[in-house]
């Protein structure tokens, strides 16, 4: 994507599991957000804690910007068995009073790095346990309260082993620095862990989609507010700039489904 959008007006609220990738994008100059705030990794199994932390981090983000992007999955990151109608989007919408909050369109953190189709190709039809670097780094949080018995019940059913989606050069570095930890977690899981190198293009496109949506919304509002015969030159210039920028983004690289399928919550 040649036309790099700016995130300078945004605060990112993310699950800490994606911190390695988001910090990498920030260090590379792509994610120039005002601030990135993280919840504790692996809270998908501790729903009350996830909800309270997410609300707290959104409130923190509100102090810095009226534009917020949520980096959380929709389908698997928050599953409320007691109240199935209360979803992560419900929680987010309740916080979006007078501000704009977008959530990137992904089911979970692995889906943010590789789409379902991409994962099917990588897995070759085998049952795979998908991992990201955060699952290794923060495994004590992600697998909180898991004992060997629970590990034996869950991991060996993945007959294709575990595949770590690596878009940041994590695996080789971590194996050199902490070879014993890789052996320890693989032994605990009872399955082989192998890396698969990817790019972060999908994550970048999902993030950019949220900015594009805000620009499209501003375009629609500008068009509605333009007087029929006496539009200010500044308004016309702004409209033309936004339309040109959106079109450039749509013409350049990436899967359009990655760019435009996402959730938007806004309460006036």
Write structural notes for this entry.
- This protein has 268 residues and is an alpha/beta fold.
- The protein folds into 2 domains: 11-109 and 201-266; 115-197, no CATH class.
- Helix content is 49%, strand content 13%.
- It contains 13 helices and 8 strands.
- It has helices at 19-27, 47-62, 88-95, 109-113, 116-123, 133-137, 139-142, 148-154, 170-177, 179-189, 201-225, 233-251, 256-260, and strands spanning 11-15, 35-39, 67-71, 100-103, 129-131, 162-166, 193-197, 263-266.
- Strands 2-1-3-4-8 form a 5-stranded mixed β-sheet, sandwiched between helices. The chain has a 3-stranded parallel β-sheet with strand order 5-6-7.
- Helix 11 packs antiparallel against helix 12.
- The longest helix has 25 residues, at 201-225.
- The model is unreliable at 253-268 (pLDDT under 50).
């Amino acid at each position: 994507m040649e036309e790099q959008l700016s995130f300078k007006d945004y605060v990112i609220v993310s699950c800490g599991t994606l911190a390695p990738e988001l910090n990498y994008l920030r260090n590379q100059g792509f994610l120039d957000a005002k601030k990135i705030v993280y919840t504790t990794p692996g809270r998908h199994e501790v729903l009350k804690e996830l909800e309270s932390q997410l609300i707290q981090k959104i409130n923190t983000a509100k102090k810095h910007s009226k534009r917020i992007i949520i980096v959380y999955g929709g389908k698997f990151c928050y599953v409320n068995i007691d109240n199935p109608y209360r979803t992560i989007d419900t929680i987010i919408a309740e916080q979006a009073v007078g501000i704009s909050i977008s959530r990137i369109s992904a089911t979970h953190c692995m889906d943010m790095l590789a789409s379902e189709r991409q994962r099917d190709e990588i897995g070759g039809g085998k049952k795979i346990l998908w991992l990201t670097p955060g699952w290794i780094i923060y495994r004590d949080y992600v697998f909180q309260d898991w004992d060997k018995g629970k590990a034996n019940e869950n991991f060996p059913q993945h007959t294709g082993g575990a595949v770590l989606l690596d878009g940041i050069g994590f695996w080789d570095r971590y194996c050199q620095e902490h070879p014993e930890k890789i052996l320890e977690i693989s032994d605990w899981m009872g399955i082989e862990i192998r890396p698969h190198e990817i790019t972060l293009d999908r994550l970048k496109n999902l993030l950019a989609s949220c900015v594009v949506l805000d620009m499209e919304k501003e375009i629609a509002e500008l068009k509605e507010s333009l007087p029929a015969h006496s539009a200010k030159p500044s308004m016309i210039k702004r409209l033309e700039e936004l339309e040109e920028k959106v079109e450039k983004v749509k013409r350049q690289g990436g899967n359009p489904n990655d760019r435009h399928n996402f959730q938007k919550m806004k309460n006036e």
